[in-house]
TrEMBL record:
Residues 55-441 form the Amidase domain. The keyword Transmembrane applies. SUPFAM superfamilies: Amidase signature (AS) enzymes, TPR-like. InterPro entries: Amidase_dom (IPR023631), AS_sf (IPR036928), TPR-like_helical_dom_sf (IPR011990), TPR_rpt (IPR019734). It comes from Brassica cretica. TPR repeats lie at residues 542-575. PANTHER family: AMIDASE 1, OUTER ENVELOPE PROTEIN 64, CHLOROPLASTIC. Keywords: Membrane, TPR repeat, Transmembrane, Transmembrane helix. SMART domains: TPR. The chain crosses the membrane at residues 6-23. This is Amidase domain-containing protein. Coiled coil: none annotated.
Length: 590
């Protein structure tokens, strides 16, 4: 097993060697893994089941876990060496980690988190801060900084983190990857060090929406179902004013993509300030008890204050005794924030809980089962390393206001990268109602390619030549994918076909070719989805029917598989493969 791990890490090192060459001119020494990992380990999945049973859903994927998740025999570090020195190795593995391994994924290591997973900066004094691979002189964002960096450098396919006040959403935005915060309580927090129990939600990072969705389906134990499209996409106009990046840079990408995919009638605009003021009446009581009466304080700021109070109060409840034993070793900023946290009366706690419940009800009422709320993820480009910007009151107010909606309501939220602005990653966030995780994952899967296409155009207005050559670029990616397929490099082929789809999402051949690669690695659900998309784009695509039939047969959906083979025969009556497959299934039902 040790040899296997060693070989795996050599391969991972080779995978990011190219990025390292670009970093040579930097004064900062960048570690081979960009400082993402704190500890290497290897948790191997069980052997795949024998055919005709479907393979494990995450077969072939590797992942890392933030150093908050328990693994049997390892001390969970919590971003602080004194925590490691005062705690015993875990006696069991977090169910979340076990579920992923049992689902076919391989866990290869633990990643760096901010000190006590408390901040959102990604800078830590105890361990070398992970380097933001998308902008080396900028912070990576935290608390799950190492996990975001591991995914951004392609060291792993996905990674786990915890989102309390932005711990997954922020580093995803700053490192240019997808980051999903699940609905609070949707995934068990057992075997995970708590930060603030009523805010903590399991989250994960990925580079592509398909992997993000596959992981989500396993963690959320979701049965197969047809993806649903949104019926309303609501832009929170006043929350975009909290952003210091040009607003049109983000909103126009979303608007153009939504219009193309669903039609203009789905788009709506909302002033959340007024909405929350009427729907969350307990905020007035909160403002009164905090003596915030001299000026009109926005509801966004009040929600931010509520989030911070929850985080600090519950953190002290969970870890106050331990902190008192190592007081000198705690970061002064954290120590100062905790010391300023007032003792809360039962009445005040009751009011905070009322605000949480009313906020969740307000978001659920606004979005219902088929709505998406669009807001900025973060207020600025990633601040420069060592700068005081992230500690400034202005930054804290803006960031906390944006992050508080999903944290307080417990709703699910996803960070979606939208290219670059001034050579730094930018992103947008989608929020769905509490419990709408599947719907949100479906929406990202549906919109991602169009969002990337539009973001490349808007970020470079002079790119008319580039937009004309999108089709040519897609064809080049497809041809490279075909070559990788011939060489049996299935994952590489999938990546190249995915690139072609990003560039041109209306070509059925790209989906059909990717489906063939998915079949080779046993990802039958993904193959079925791609074939369905290919058939939607081209009703006479015989290969798509054949491949979908094969995928469905492997999934045990025999009647639908037979229908696909028979449809292929209608299109090509002399197709031997279709004839033999249909006959085989016919005999099965005799």
């Amino acid at each position: 097993m040790a040899s296997h791990a060693s070989n795996l890490w050599v391969l991972l090192g080779l995978g990011i060697a190219g990025i390292l060459l670009a970093a040579k001119k930097l004064k900062k020494t960048i570690r081979e893994d960009f400082g993402a990992f704190i500890e290497k380990l290897l948790l191997l999945p069980p052997p795949p089941p024998a055919p005709p049973k479907a393979p494990h859903p995450l077969t072939g994927l590797s992942f890392a876990i933030s150093d908050l998740f328990d693994v049997t025999g390892y001390v969970t570090g919590f971003g602080h060496p004194d925590w490691v020195g005062t705690h015993e190795p875990a006696s069991s593995t977090s169910p979340v980690v076990s579920t992923l391994v049992e689902g076919g994924a391989t866990c290869v290591g633990k990643t760096v988190v901010d000190e006590l997973a408390f901040s959102i900066s990604g800078e830590t004094k105890h361990y070398e801060s992970p380097t933001n691979p998308a902008a080396h002189d900028r912070i990576p964002g935290g608390a799950s900084s190492g996990a975001a960096v591991a995914v951004a450098t392609s060291a792993v396919d996905f990674a786990l983190g915890i989102d309390t006040v932005g711990g997954v959403r922020v580093p995803a935005g700053y490192c240019g990857v997808l980051g999903f915060k699940s609905s609070h309580g949707a995934i068990s927090n057992a075997g995970i060090i708590p930060v603030s129990s009523s805010l903590d939600s399991v989250g994960w990072f990925a580079r592509d929406p398909n992997t993000l969705r596959r992981v989500g389906h396993v963690l959320l134990h979701l049965p197969f179902a047809t993806p649903r499209n949104p019926r309303q996409i609501i832009l929170a106009d006043d929350y975009f004013q909290l952003q210091k990046i040009p607003v049109d840079r983000i909103t126009q990408v979303v608007i153009k993509s939504a219009e193309k995919l669903f039609g203009r009638q789905l788009l709506k605009h909302q002033n959340l300030e007024n909405y929350f003021e009427s729907k969350v009446p307990s905020l007035k009581e909160f403002a009164r008890t905090k003596a915030i009466t001299s000026t009109k304080v926005p509801t966004s700021r009040l929600l931010a204050n509520v989030m911070q109070l929850f985080q600090r109060h519950e953190f002290l409840q969970n870890h106050g005794d331990w902190i008192n034993t190592v007081k000198q070793a705690i970061d002064p900023v954290i120590s100062s924030q905790l010391s300023e946290t007032p003792e809360l009366t039962n009445e005040e706690i009751e009011n905070l809980n009322a605000i949480r419940n009313q906020t969740r009800a307000a978001i659920n009422s606004l979005l219902k089962d088929d709505g998406i709320l669009v807001i900025p993820t973060v207020p600025t480009l990633p601040p420069k390393l060592g700068s005081k910007e992230i500690l400034s009151e202005d930054y804290q107010n803006r960031a906390s206001s944006l992050l508080s909606i999903a944290s307080i309501s417990g709703c699910c939220q996803v960070t979606v990268p939208l290219g670059h602005h001034e050579k730094c990653p930018v992103s947008v966030s989608f929020i769905a109602r509490h419990g709408g995780d599947r719907f949100l994952l479906d929406t990202v899967q549906t919109m991602y390619a169009s969002l990337q296409e539009n973001s490349s155009v808007i970020s470079d207005p002079k790119s008319s030549k580039k937009t004309i050559s999108l089709g040519e670029s897609a064809e080049m990616a497809k041809e490279k994918g075909n070559q990788a397929f011939k060489e049996k490099q299935w994952q590489k082929a999938i990546g190249l076909y995915s690139e072609a789809i990003k560039l041109s999402d209306s070509n059925g051949t790209y989906y059909n070719n990717r489906a063939a690669a998915y079949l080779e690695i046993g990802s039958f659900l993904q193959a079925e989805e791609d074939c369905t998309k290919a058939i939607t784009l081209d009703k006479k695509n015989v290969k798509a029917y054949l491949r979908r039939g094969t995928a469905r047969e492997m999934l045990g959906v025999y009647k639908e598989a037979m229908d696909d083979f028979r449809h292929a025969l209608v299109l090509e009556p002399n197709n031997k493969r279709a004839s033999q497959s249909a006959e085989r299934l016919r005999k099965l039902f005799q």
